[in-house]
Hints:
The protein has about 325 residues and is an alpha/beta fold. It has a single domain, classed as NAD(P)-binding Rossmann-like Domain (Rossmann fold). The chain has helices spanning about 1-15, 35-50, 60-75, 90-105, 135-155, 180-185, 190-195, 210-225, 255, 260-275, 275-285, 305-310; strands spanning about 30, 50-55, 80-85, 115, 165-170, 240, 300. Strands 3-2-1-4-5-6-7 form a seven-stranded parallel β-sheet, sandwiched between helices. Helix 3 (about 60-75) links the parallel strand 2 and strand 3 (about 80-85). Helix 2 (about 35-50) crosses helix 11. It starts with a helix and ends in a 10-residue tail after the last helix. Bound molecules: NADP nicotinamide-adenine-dinucleotide phosphate (NAP). NADP nicotinamide-adenine-dinucleotide phosphate binds near residues 33, 62, 119, 169 and 249.
Amino acid sequence: xxxxxxxxxxxxxxPEPLPPPASFDGQTVLVTGATAGLGLAAAVHFATLGARVxxxxxxxxxxxxxxxxxxxxxxxxxxxxxxxMELDMNRYSSCMSFVNELKQTEVCQNGLDVAVLxxxxxxxxxxxxxxxxxxxxxxxxxxxxxxxLLLLQWMKQPGRDTKPHLVFVTSRDHLDPDITTWADWxxxxxxxxxxxxxxxxxxxxxxxxYANSKLLLTYAVEEICKRxxxxxxxxxxxxxxxxxxxxxTDLAREVAKTSTLMQLLVSVYQxxxxxxxxxxxxxxxxxxxxxxxxxxxYIQSMFTDDEYxxxxxxxxxxxxxD
Length: 322
Ligand SMILES: NC(=O)c1ccc[n+]([C@@H]2O[C@H](COP(=O)([O-])OP(=O)(O)OC[C@H]3O[C@@H](n4cnc5c(N)ncnc54)[C@H](OP(=O)(O)O)[C@@H]3O)[C@@H](O)[C@H]2O)c1
């Protein structure tokens, strides 16, 4: 814990550098969950660096003020270059119609250069999605994976000048779950059903499924990485996972609401160790510029590659991120 917090402080003091201006000139970038926090800050970075940015929202009024914010922050470069689209990741139908609409939009007439799948939630209380899964698992794992698969198929278009990037926002917390019983659960109801069973919801735990949802997403991305290869084994779409580090956003709002003490703890913890959304979102920009030989890498600052390998070794499947 001391080690992790020391690294968090270091990240706060030495921010990830941004690439030169105009690095994304002529590119079209999608950011999901762009109304707040890291998604909003990432939209500002990409617009400032010259991209046309597609921002997703669940509520158009919230989306319009986010879009205005991005255009204002990006100044003259961002004017008229941001686009709003509706996406609710509680429902598969919304994910599918979103991708269908995206393919038809004028801004995507030359395809999509970068997709950053950022939207995510933390739930303290059990909530079920209309699809029947626990909502953290629905949004962070299942709908993110579905979007990733649908986008990958489309982004694999032959004859492009540059390799497109598909970026999945995970979290360092994917290293936390104790997976020793996962094989047993898999043989019983299945792991997803286990985590979506209200009777098994651990009351009193702050964010029961968050780390599980991010580890499950990490496993799904391993499969997506394999599918990103073309017939001759070349990488058609560069796929990465990214962790922005600890960032002061509203993500932990449900945790803060559990008591006045927790509200205080969350704000002190984020205040002392949390980076700004601007700093955290710089890792998304880094992940959107990786080279082909970094395909599959976990982009983050907390660990060196060797340290991550040592932590990740406890995971059951081989990791391509290293
Ligand atoms: N903050 C951190 O310290 C931290 C650390 C590691 C990883 N992350 C990851 O970073 C990502 C962004 O988190 P954040 O800290 O910026 O949180 P945030 O401020 O709460 O923003 C979350 C975004 O996701 C959207 N979203 C939530 N549920 C959605 C749904 N069902 N369908 C579509 N969009 C939905 C929200 O849109 P609405 O406005 O519609 O709610 C919002 O734009 C998450 O994946 C999180 O796990 C964050």
